[in-house]
Amino acid sequence: MRRATYSAGAFKPLDAADLTDGCEMVVMLDVPRPNRRRPYVKCRFERGLLVPSTPVTLQEGEEVEYYETVVAEVIAPGITRHPEIRFGKACIEGTRLAVMDIAALHDQGLTPEEILVEYPDVTLEQITHALAYYQAHPEEIEAEFERQDRAFEKMEREWQEDVARHGGNPPDVPSAEDRGIARPVDAQSPVDALEALAKEAQPFAHPVRFIRIKKGSDGNDR
Q: Which CATH number fits domain 73-136: 3.40.30.10, 3.40.50.300, 1.20.140.150, 1.10.10.10?
């Protein structure tokens, strides 16, 4: 993670050793929010500073994250892919919102208009593009769901082993050897999980998290 501090309309990287004048970066202007894209501004590195393409106003000394800009390949109308964005998943152009994110809500029975309520930072046309890609490439998206399920199963198994290893009470702040073990966040929904994380006293004490959705009264996963 690259970080910079805001000062007088520009951003000073905390470590600019590998940056050269003229290179372009993207500065994130806010923390992640449930079902919302983070606001960002494109910047150009000039004489030790990241100069934003449009004016921004933040508090002096405020820290932000920044990343190298990437150009994703257009693979279908409104859909792109890049190996460094969402692990190479098909995404809505100009965003990190994957087609599988839209497909998951579609499979739950939501209409495009209802999906738009969940992801208000994209347009109905973009959601339509994502659904069209899902319908044209169902095997690809289903394979992504299967990989995700296997990953969650592995994280759950490793977590249960960690709990057992600590007699049922793993420490709030893990040891160096346990920091790679994902810790679950139990919630009624992904949005509730993110809100719970935001309220934690040490939200990043454990670097890897995964969300466990509580089961409903009918015994089925929500």
A: 1.10.10.10
